[in-house]
Structures are given as C-alpha cells and as structure tokens.
C-alpha cells in the first residue's frame, strides 16, 4: 500500500474505519495519505492506527482534501483515535497552511477522549504530528489529547518527536 486514497461516499474507502483497517493490515511500500472528501464522517467506533510496517518511509497522513472542511465523530467511551505506532500525521488544514479545517469530536457522555498517542512497552513512538485541528470532548470527564502508555490510560510512556501544533482543544 502506497499513495493517496480518497475517503468518503464516492472515494476509495467509504469510511475512515475501513481505510485504517486496510492501512493496519497491509504491507506498506511508501507513504500513505488519506484525503477526506466528505464534510461529515460518523464512525461506528474507535479509529485505531497500528500498522507494524510504519516507518520513516512508510508514513500515514490523514487530512481534508483541498477545499473540504471535514468533521469526524463517534461516541466511544475511550479515545476516538488511538495511535499505537509512529510516523503518523493528522493535519487539519485543507490547503497546506495553518487553517483548521478538520474537527474531531467524541460525542460520548462517559469518559470521552479524542486522540490517544500510546506507546506499548518500552518501544518509543516517534514522529507523530497532530496539527491544525479542532478537538472536542463530549464531557469534561476525560482529556481531549493524551500522550501516554498505550495500554493503561494515565501511565507514562516512551516517545520521541511528538508535535502538537496549532490545535483548538
């Protein structure tokens, strides 16, 4: 798997859930970009990013397609996005600038979180970027963004080169 793929009603993948399932299960041969072409994505559950093939060459970028203002939402009692490997970028700008054209919302009223960047064991997660997004919790009973151990919320983890930039939380 390598290249740019559209995600939306008429895209390569209908949902981000389906796109990430493919990303996590296929051999990667280069960078992958998922371009969000619809305005709204109502996902059925947690969005897991956990490819064993991710590397400095085999990266993942999730972003709105040019000119699209997108919203991703689901109701999960944990974090909507759970990133368990490195070399992942979530860029909310639809034009390569610093505009915030992507809103990610966990609508659950019970311990909703939005993005969890989690290391597993002592293997560090490196090169994760979350920028130009709007992150919204469904309640104040959890954090919107967590960088910590990938198995136990609240424990420290191992990280290098994590960038959190120009987000509204």
Topology diagram in text:
Elements: E1 3-7, H1 16-25, E2 32-36, E3 40-42, E4 47-49, E5 60-64, E6 70-74, E7 79-83, E8 88-91, E9 102-106, E10 113-119, E11 125-131, E12 133-136, E13 145-149, E14 159-165
Parallel strand pairs: 1-2, 2-5, 3-6, 4-7, 5-8, 6-9, 7-10, 8-11, 9-12, 10-13, 11-14
Descriptive notes:
- The strands form three sheets. This protein has a six-stranded parallel β-sheet with strand order 1-2-5-8-11-14, with helices on one face. Strands 3-6-9-12 form a four-stranded parallel β-sheet, with no helix packed on it. Strands 4-7-10-13 form a four-stranded parallel β-sheet.
- It has 169 residues and is mostly beta strands.
- Helix content is 6%, strand content 41%.
Task: State the main characteristics.
169 residues, mainly beta, six-stranded parallel β-sheet, four-stranded parallel β-sheet, 1 helix, 14 strands, 41% strand, globular
Instruction: Give the structural class.
Output: mainly beta
Total number of helices: 1
Unreliable stretches covering 5 or more consecutive residues: none
Amount of helix: under 10%
Tell me, briefly, the overall form. Answer: globular
Using the CA coordinates, give the radius of gyration. 15 Å
How many beta-strand runs?
14
Q: End-to-end distance, in Å?
A: 32 Å
Order of helices and strands: EHEEEEEEEEEEEEE
Could you describe the largest sheet, including whether it forms a barrel?
Answer: 6 strands, parallel
Kindly estimate the percentage of residues that lie in beta strands according to DSSP: 35-45%
Strand order of the largest sheet: 1-2-5-8-11-14
